[in-house]
Amino acid sequence: MLAYSARRLLLIVPTLLCILLVNFVIVQAAPGGPVEQAIARLQGIGGASAVGGGAVDTVGGESRATRGLDPRLLADIERQYGFDKPAGERLWLLLKSYAQLDFGKSFFRGATVTELIAQKLPVTLSLGLWATLITYLVSIPLGIRKAVRNGSAFDVWSSAAIVIGYAMPGFLFALLLIVVFGGGTLLDWFPVRGLVSENFEQLSAVGKLVDYFWHLVLPVTALVIGGFATLTLLTKNSFLNEVSRLYVVTARAKGLSERQVLYGHVFRNAMLLVVAGLPQALVNVFFGGSLLIEVIFSLDGLGRLSYDAAVSRDYPVVFGSLFIFTLFGLLIKLVGDLCYTLVDPRIDFSARSA
Known about the structure:
It is a single chain. This protein has 354 residues and is mainly alpha-helical. The protein has a domain of 179 residues: MetI-like fold (Orthogonal Bundle). Helices cover 72% and strands 1% of the residues. The chain has 16 helices and 2 strands. It starts with a helix and ends with a helix. Keywords: Cell inner membrane, Cell membrane, Membrane, Transmembrane, Transmembrane helix, Transport. One of its GO terms (biological process) is microcin transport. Belongs to the binding-protein-dependent transport system permease family.
């Protein structure tokens, strides 16, 4: 297993390199880069709306946004953002700095990319960690119970509730939670802005903990709703598939109790399919499903940071966020593979790779 883990870790390097190369080419080809954004700001146009949404008009090979500006000013702006160098040289400098874990400095935020990510990461980690933990702690026992009581009234009404939850988009459910519990039209039980209160520093240790979790109730609930339905039905179907196999019939014939059959034999095999979906679920919750939730609940996390950077063409932040997302995704997938061996020690990835 150590050899397999070492090979997977080594493969992360060329994978990151290929992803950075592809995205560098795509980003360089996209219109409305940081130079055009800076020029639009100087002209009072508004960068994102003026040049970020489509092709830049040109007349005689000259950008419409740059017409009438001093060429020396344009050269200074290009030099400031590093666009006075050829694309190949910019790519080499990018890879060289990333090899030293130097992600550069934001074009428009006045801080390094590392500082920005460090500031936003706690919000994204809080949402992703607690949403994933609650999803698995509730969905797996519920899925097992639905499999054991398949066809019963409990299975029918719980399935109906799950399907309704799955059909409702997370952002729409978030708005519903705000209306009902966030001071909309009914109850005012939970805060709907930020991760902590304004007087957080004046609270006691217990008060800080309560305040932190109190702010997480609504956004985490909104994130859980979609993954909760999928994982519950996946767990149920996995157990139903395993219960019908011959080894279960044999175990029952030997006089084992239903609990021994379920958790001693069925659980290990059924959970393999559930564990297989863990890496993708983590990636989706951490980096895919949090943007709208962050916007709705005024949470300043990596989702909003990446979106704003893409709109404003803040390339250092775009590449830095991409690097972090990809690295975390690859590491999470490796952890998911290692979890296979915890669920079923008979799995040996090293033997398969040999």
